[in-house]
Design a protein that fits this description.
The complex is a heterodimer of chains A (about 70) and B (about 250).
Chain A lengths: L1 H15 L4 H19 L7 H19 L3
Chain B lengths: L2 H29 L2 H28 L2 H27 L8 H14 L11 H28 L3 H22 L8 H23 L11 H20 L10
Helix pairs in contact in B: 1-2, 1-4, 1-5, 1-6, 1-7, 2-5, 3-5, 3-7, 3-8, 5-6, 7-8
Classes of the chains: A mainly alpha (about 70), B mainly alpha (about 250).
Chain lengths: ~70, ~250
């Protein structure tokens, strides 16, 4: 039973998070900051694209460094 | 986003998933037993239909802003995963996705397994191989259809685009009875990664309360902008080649 639950959790982790948890964490942080800025009536549309420009190279650098 | 862009985005994403599912069903049918493979495929399609029937109305009832935040976040994570792999493949840091090679590997694995019947299924391994392959790839199709469709208030059009992709790929697979190696899958994955990332960025930020300059027209800048970033990263990574042994 425990093995099945672990396998189920592993499937959803792989399905949603994938190879690099940093990407998912970065997405959540960027959207949380966007929400905070927009609540303060500050233009926030640029924040997610900025995170994208930073996240993608870092994730690729991590992938090439470990040879995957 | 116009209906044309919705159709193209869903169609391309679903072609990629359908090609992968078709390869698995073909391997199960060729190496094991066609009746079991088609039963497995039919079983998975029935489960997917239940998932759509259960989730479809629920997704449509979620308030648009909350839906866009949730869906945007997921699309962004999915899109970045696709794009990351596509960039690694295009730059030579990861082996290209080769349906022919995958088919041969699955064929060899399937042929080595002992035959065991269960109930009306003549070959249980062929059934489960086909069932799991179609279900897993199909879940991604369902996710793409429901999220794109619900966000644009046009689940019907998204479903038609997905159906066109699945029927087209399945028909070609049935006719040629071999993996669809000529489909430019790596290029399509690159394009789909760009589109999922762009739509995820747009909807996610909007769901979090941001207002895009030019509203929907911002996508016309986001899509080419992300494409340029991805191509630039491919060029940079090509300048740092890795030994073939490190590619996987």
């Amino acid at each position: 039973m425990g093995a099945r639950i672990r396998a189920f959790a592993a499937f959803w982790y792989d399905f949603v998070i994938g190879d690099d948890w940093l990407v998912a964490a970065g997405v959540v942080i960027s959207l949380a900051l966007t929400y905070a800025l927009s609540q303060a009536a500050v233009p926030a549309w640029w924040l997610v694209p900025l995170f994208l420009v930073l996240l993608l190279p870092v994730s690729l650098w991590r992938a090439t460094r470990r040879g995957s | 986003m116009g209906t044309g862009a919705l159709f193209i985005a869903v169609f391309l994403a679903c072609v990629v998933e359908a090609v992968e599912a078709t390869t698995i069903v073909l391997a199960a049918g060729t190496a094991r037993d066609w009746r079991s493979a088609t039963s497995g495929m039919a079983g998975a399609l029935a489960v997917l239909a239940i998932v759509v029937a259960a989730l479809g109305p629920a997704v449509s009832d979620v308030p648009l802003r909350g839906l866009r935040l949730f869906v945007g976040a997921l699309l962004l994570v999915f899109g970045l995963q696709w794009l990351r792999k596509a960039i690694l493949r295009a730059s030579g840091h990861k082996a290209l996705h080769d349906e022919g090679k995958i088919f041969a590997e699955q064929l060899a694995t399937a042929a080595a397994k002992p035959r065991r019947s269960a109930g009306l299924v003549p070959d249980w391994y062929g059934f489960t191989l086909s069932f799991k392959g179609v279900l897993l790839e199909g879940l991604e199709v369902v996710f793409i259809v429901l999220t794109f469709g619900a966000n644009q208030h046009d689940v019907g059009l998204a479903a038609i685009a997905a159906a066109c992709a699945v029927v087209l790929v399945a028909a070609v697979g049935v006719v040629i009875r071999s993996p669809l190696q000529r489909v430019p899958e790596n290029t399509m994955k690159f394009v789909v990664g760009i589109m999922l990332t762009a739509f995820g960025t747009f909807w996610g930020a909007e769901g979090a309360g941001a207002h895009w300059p030019g509203s929907d027209a911002a996508l016309l800048a986001l899509i080419p902008g992300i494409a340029v970033l991805a191509l630039a990263l491919v060029a940079v990574l090509r300048g740092n080649p890795v030994p073939a042994a490190e590619r996987s």
